[in-house]
Amino acid sequence: MAQYHVTIDSELLQQLFLSDAKDAGMARLLQSVLNQVLEAQATEQLRAEPYERTEERLGYRNGTYPYNLTTRVGTITLRVPRLRNGKFSTELFSRYQRSEQAFILALMEMVVNGVSTRKVTEITEELCGTRISKSLVSELCKRLDPMLTAWNNRPLDEQEYPFVIVDAIVIRIREDNRVRHRSVLIAVGIGETGQREVLGIRIGDSESEDNWSDFFAWLKERGLSGVDLVVSDQHGGLVKAIRKHFQGASWQRCQTHFMRNILDVTPSSCRDEVKARKRAILDSPDMETARSLLAKTIDAFEKKGPRAMKIPETGFEDALAVLALPEKYRKQLRTTNGLERLNEEIRRRERVIRIFPNRESALRLIGAVLLEIDNKWAEGRRYLDMTDYLEWRKQQAHNVTAIRQVS
């Protein structure tokens, strides 16, 4: 990767700390840095600084031309170098984040399908600098779709994924001249290396058992294996599909949803006390302690809130499945909260689109958002140190073998 020497004006730096001019200061800073990068790239291509005479020089500068680039901090004006004996080339303008490219494409597809507002048309034309046409949309899709398809269908057989977290969000898609609700199925895995990965996404007609089964079968066809714990909410079709495709694995019912289900039917007069007691149960160090606290809670509130007490009775074992794991892994694996944050990133863009023009557009935008998050995870530190878990799993397997030999 090329490295560039960039200087920052003290006045420009000072503006970044003014409370009423942060966005303007950031825009000016970005404009200054990118213009210096463009000049450095011109020097690289010509192999000579401005006015420098060397035998290696490959051409000459011929001034600059302005180029408006729309960014997250506003529109900035760049000075793009002109070269006399050739065309200056830079990837700078194509370096929109993939999610932003997909977002723009979704807006453009709304335009060409005649379902957008005038404001959306104006935004897309301003972003793209040209009139919107089906051929332009098609050309841009060709650049983005193969990369997203390859990522979403990549093999998963390089390692095992002991922990898998799954969830779905509902979006609206225009199909057959009608707006229909569709479910986006998402799976995140934590492999033996301890890194999180977005394993895959699919758009299904609903969250039925069949759709989830197809999703899990697709993940397994790509090589998903070694699953020891699956974390999800208690959607009926999802739970049945988990038990069908991951036999032998434990199912961890999301404790956040579990607590919410209980409090929703708890009388307001005792809600705070029930919440505190349930929190203590979920934070128990072992199953024996949890069972003891559960029994006391049911005895204390069975008459005041009979409906609320039925939920922990029936869902207790599933909500505390993580207690079978070493303690250091329980906090991160007892809820779907990490995946919920991914859903929030999707919602932030989906709220602008409101209704996707087709499934391809939805998959493109959501896939691009998740691909960027997946890349950040890969470049960041490990989510979990799996050393203790792998040793614990080995000991568990040894114990099972010893019991079978004795029997």
TrEMBL record:
One of its GO terms (biological process) is DNA transposition. Keywords: DNA recombination, DNA-binding, Transposable element, Transposition. Required for the transposition of the insertion element. The keyword Nuclease does not apply. The lineage of its organism: Bacteria, Bacillati, Bacillota, Clostridia, Eubacteriales. Belongs to the transposase mutator family. This is Mutator family transposase. PANTHER family: TRANSPOSASE FOR INSERTION SEQUENCE ELEMENT IS1081. The keyword DNA-binding applies. InterPro entries: Transposase_mutator. One of its GO terms (molecular function) is transposase activity.
